[in-house]
Write a structure and sequence with these properties.
The chain is of the alpha/beta class. It has two domains: 198 residues, Vaccinia Virus protein VP39 (Rossmann fold, 3-Layer(aba) Sandwich), CATH 3.40.50; 66 residues, no CATH class. Helix 2 runs antiparallel to helix 11.
């Protein structure tokens, strides 16, 4: 994607924060437990005594999950002020005395000298919406302390990414009525193909979806269809970039093959920053 100052600015982005503010009303202990379980799966263990940075905190759910896994300090950041306010409300409700802080700041403006390094930096499904994925990946990884971990998820590059860029630019500018029609049409097509190709009922799919990461299918459809700016990347490209930045791969999860006709899914990555030697 061609980088421009406009694409890096929050005003040119889809209103993710308003979507997460709506979703946050659904957060219960069940959603927090699911998010904590998935975070622990990705990290390979708990966060006891570790500083945790959540880049693109959205609803605040995964900042909550980090606290539940024993993080000694959680810093939740987002470029969208609605997301920051939602996260502040959610954390105040579920962890009023927890060691957390919320900051309205872009990933490009994070400063390791001012904030210090973090044992775990987490950014799930965020960096590909910043307007400059490669620069965002470099900025986020720069917040990881020596020997620390970087956990993130990025859209897999598919044959249909060109189409979704067009669709997302349209959706972001469309009227609420047109957006609603698009969501209904997408859901209907997804439901039909899911049954025809995978032989699973939509009800069972929704039950499994809610249990994974504690997210909500219908809010995620709105997020997917409107998620602009949009970029994608292959696992091979990610690995090459991270190796150059002094990280080594720990584990990753993702689909074996993805055509992309119904959209892309995220590959999940966990990298460790090599310890500095003196």
């Amino acid at each position: 994607m061609k980088t421009s100052t406009d694409l890096l600015a929050q005003r040119s982005h889809f209103e993710f924060g308003k979507n997460w503010a709506s979703y946050a009303k659904l957060i219960t202990d069940n959603e927090i437990d699911s998010a904590a379980s998935e975070l622990e799966r990705l990290l390979g263990g708990r966060l006891d005594g570790k500083r945790f940075l959540d880049i693109g905190c959205g609803s605040g759910l995964h900042s909550l999950a980090a606290l539940r896994l024993g993080a000694s300090e959680v810093l939740a950041t987002d470029i969208d002020p609605d997301s920051v306010e939602t996260t502040r409300v959610v954390l105040s409700a579920h962890a009023p005395d927890g060691p957390w802080e919320c900051l309205n700041v872009s990933v490009f403006d994070l400063d390791a000298k001012a904030l210090g390094g973090f044992d775990v930096v987490y950014s799930w499904g965020v960096l590909h919406h910043t307007g400059d994925l490669y620069r965002a990946l470099a900025a986020a990884s720069g917040m990881v302390c020596s020997g620390g971990q970087f956990a993130f998820a990025l859209y897999r590059k598919t044959l249909f990414c060109w189409f979704w860029k067009i669709e997302k630019r349209w959706y972001m500018r469309a009227s609420p009525k047109a957006q609603n029609v698009a969501r209904r049409a997408y859901s209907a097509v997804f439901r039909s193909l899911s049954y025809l190709l995978l032989f699973r009922s939509h009800r069972k799919y929704l039950e499994k979806y809610r249990a994974q990461r504690g997210m909500d299918y219908y809010h995620d459809i709105h997020d997917w269809l409107g998620g602009w700016p949009y970029e994608s990347i292959s696992p091979r490209q990610v690995n090459r970039l991270m190796l150059v930045r002094g990280f080594e791969p720990i584990r990753s999860f993702g689909p074996r093959f993805m055509l992309g006709a119904l959209g892309s899914a995220c590959d999940e990555y966990l990298y460790s920053r090599l310890k500095e030697t003196t």
